[in-house]
Amino acid sequence: MSIRFYNTITRQKEAFQPLETGKVKMYTCGPTVYDYAHIGNYRTFIFEDLLRRYLEFRGFDVNQAMNLTDVDDNTIRRSRERDISLTELTDEFKAAFHADLKTLNMQAAQNYPEATNFIPQMINMISDLETKGYTYTTPDGSVFFNIGKYEQYGKLANLNPDEMLSGGRVADDSYEKEGARDFALWKGYKAEDGDVQWESPWGKGRPGWHIECSVMSTELLGPHFDIHCGGVDNIFPHHENELAQSVCATGADFVNYWLHSEYLLVDNKKMSKSLNNFYTLRDLLDQDYPAEAIRWMLITTHYRQKLNFSVSRLEEAQKAVNRLREFYSKLKAYDGSGEEDAEDQIRVADEQFTSAMDDDLNISGGLAAIFELVRWGNRSMVEGRLSATGANDLIILIRKFDHVLGVLDMESGLNVEIDADFIESKIADRNEARANKDFTTSDAIRDELVALGVELIDTPEGTKWKMK
Known about the structure:
The protein is of the alpha/beta class. It has two domains: 21-261, 3-Layer(aba) Sandwich (Rossmann fold), CATH 3.40.50.620; 311-467, no CATH class. The chain has helices spanning 39-57, 73-82, 86-103, 119-131, 209-221, 235-250, 281-286, 291-299, 311-333, 343-358, 363-382, 388-405, 420-435, 439-451, and strands spanning 4-7, 12-15, 23-28, 61-66, 135-137, 143-145, 169-170, 182-188, 205-207, 224-231, 254-261, 264-266, 269-270, 307-309, 454-459, 462-467. Helix 9 (311-333) packs across helix 11 and helix 13 (420-435) runs antiparallel to helix 14 (439-451).
């Protein structure tokens, strides 16, 4: 079975066929670096990480570019509010973003293009669009894309051309769907831009947001590439405008597959500072929620379903990570002499995981296959049936699955100093609970220790422990 993705532009699942056999070129929308990214942003970034990891799992060589928007309305406004230069502001939040990626164990993209490094190329693309008749210039030196000149405008966002505002235009970088209008490619200089300006054929000014991604993606991946990702909030206006200007400028098809992740809600409400339910990754870490629980929660709801964030979901996520880690630790410590290998179970789990994930990244089906294997493996070890070779083969498969999940080797992100006597006393309490067949208590103690970064290893000589 081939991989199938839901393509936003066709609104159906399609078999994935890369332009070049065995290789994938993928552009993923990154942050606008004027503040710390919030967990809604990371829902999208984690989806993009899962997508890349799974493509690699399936043997593809992935070339990923993830943009950093370091000049737009928001970055300029925030730098002026803080009375610092644009570079000072964006450097601060670029560094914070890269630190957050490491905390969440996201694979580094091959390229992190920054908009301010591509201004000449943006001017060139706008000039090409002007030469081809897709633009007009206003008295203030701004250049607008005329959406009426591109017959397929609105195809990605499924807009009705008859409802577009003929002759209307908007200079804001983002705006509502109800106002599909001509958009700014180049913004003539205004006093509120301060010292953020570049010379151009139309006078000094700066690029619009949408042209930035068109230039960065085509410069790094070519005028026609495989996958473009982002959140559903990017479909319009950003990706619609990006598609229009790219196709018109280059004459190529631009992107074959558009994939978009749904919104993240907090306790079934839209995340908002006014509702006091707005979280950055750092907010959650400061409240002692482990990074691996946050990552697990963000990847284990299908990307095209709204994800409802809650404390209880984080707690359930930590339990799931603990269960997988504990199974992996038991396999590494297992020295049983059973005669049962795991060949059939490994084949079935691998096939079921791959089949589920091939179906538009069906993560719930993939995890079901993994945890069915965990149940079988735990039972086989407890009963002494699993062979040493079988245990080693299971270790290899779990590591293979973890290339997609990315949680086994994560650090919790917590700075917890734990006394050894405390750990030993907890282990003694757990042993007593197990002897009394009070497995609810014993499991709770185990989960408490694992959440603190303590790895428990049950052996014939007793329970051993080490810090992860």
